[in-house]
Amino acid sequence: KAAGRNRAVLYHDQMDQQLQTQHWIEGELRKALKADGQLSVAYQPLVAASSQQTVGAEALVRWTHPTLGRVSPARFIPVAETSGLIEELGTFVLRQACKMGVRHQGKRIAVNISPTQLRNPAFPQALFSVLRETGMSPENLELEITESILLDDEKTANSALTAFREKGIRIALDDFGTGYSSLNYLKRYPVDRIKIDQSFVRQLNEGHASVAIVQALVSLAHAMNMDVTAEGVETSEQARILTQLRCNTLQGYLFSHPIDEAEISAWFAEPEY
Ligand code: C2E
Ligand code: CA
Ligand code: CA
Ligand code: CA
User: Fold this and answer.
1) In a designed cystine with 172, which of 125, 164, 193, 234 is the match (CB 3.0 to 4.6 A)?
2) pLDDT, tens digit (0-9, with 9 covering 90-100), for 144-160
3) Across-strand partners of 227?
4) Closest protein CA for atom 22 of ligand 1
5) How far apart are the C-alpha atoms of 204 and 211, rounded to whole Å?
């Protein structure tokens, strides 16, 4: 019983610490949004499987804290979401990405949109005003959304996605295949592309079940007039299999890590892998 209580106390302490850390990160992130230079956007090339041409890039937020150094988005995005900072952070990324994209007409720029952003009925207007302000063409913008977004507020999400598509903006379902009702989303929401999750790509070997799964996902997507991107491509063997399975676009360390704005500009001009 005593041991049980000790465990409970320990658990409590850990929760306490976790809460304090969360709170601290939130404060630091708030400062970072005001300060200059801590937050930036990195871009990872999107490569056409058939031609190996760079067709665009995914924007990924980066945070370099003055004492902690690099903080992973996996760490601070959840905090931004629960603290209400995600809207400001999301707008920062969107604006940066559009300013970059406008200088590379014809390249597709993909931006991650968090559930909280999409749930906000004011979001579409905010996004359109960033497009107007930067001069970014809607046809070159793609929004990456995750399945969980759509679960809790179907109506708001659906009307936002419809408004985006009417302007020519494209919608991609991120981390596809990891949610429990992936297939339901395909019939319910207007989607242009699925991004097959890294977990399937990592296991791609001749004879592995992942090959059959990816093959089925590609057939399904193509039958519904959707494109397919495979993410987390690290080896040329994976790229070969994914190309053979008719994935449209590949993304991963094999081609490039996420790189800064100057590097992606050079990359768009002349990819070097
Ligand atoms: P995600 O959208 O699924 O992004 C892909 C993640 O995989 C990125 O991690 C990317 O750097 C990493 N990656 C790319 N190629 C490879 C590879 O070949 N192998 C492996 N192992 N990993 C690869 P990152 O940048 O740390 O971002 C993590 C997650 O944080 C993202 O997952 C996304 O959910 C979220 N995130 C990042 N930037 C933003 C943003 O601006 N807004 C929102 N809402 N979320 C963001
Ligand atoms: Ca993404
Ligand atoms: Ca993903
Ligand atoms: Ca993810």
Assistant:
1) 193
2) 998 775 556 778 888 99
3) 193
4) 232
5) 6
Question: Under DSSP, is residue 103 helix (H, G, I), strand (E, B) or coil?
Answer: coil
Task: Please answer whether residues 229 and 200 qualify as being in contact, where contact means their C-beta atoms are separated by less than 8 angstroms.
Answer: no
DSSP string, 169-203: -EEEEEEETSSTTHHHHHHHS--SEEEE-HHHHHT
For ligand 1, the distance from its centroid to the CA atom of residue 1, given in whole angstroms, is 44
Which atom of ligand 1 approaches the CA of 81 most closely? 44
Q: Measured in angstroms, how far is the CA atom of residue 173 from the centroid of ligand 2?
A: 9
**Residue 55 pLDDT greater than 80, yes or no:** yes
What does the angle CA 85 – CA 86 – CA 92 come to, to the nearest 5 degrees? 100
Q: How distant is the alpha carbon of residue 266 from its chain centre?
A: 22
Substitution site in 77, 141, 264 for ligand 1 pocket (most atoms within 8 Å of beta carbon):
77
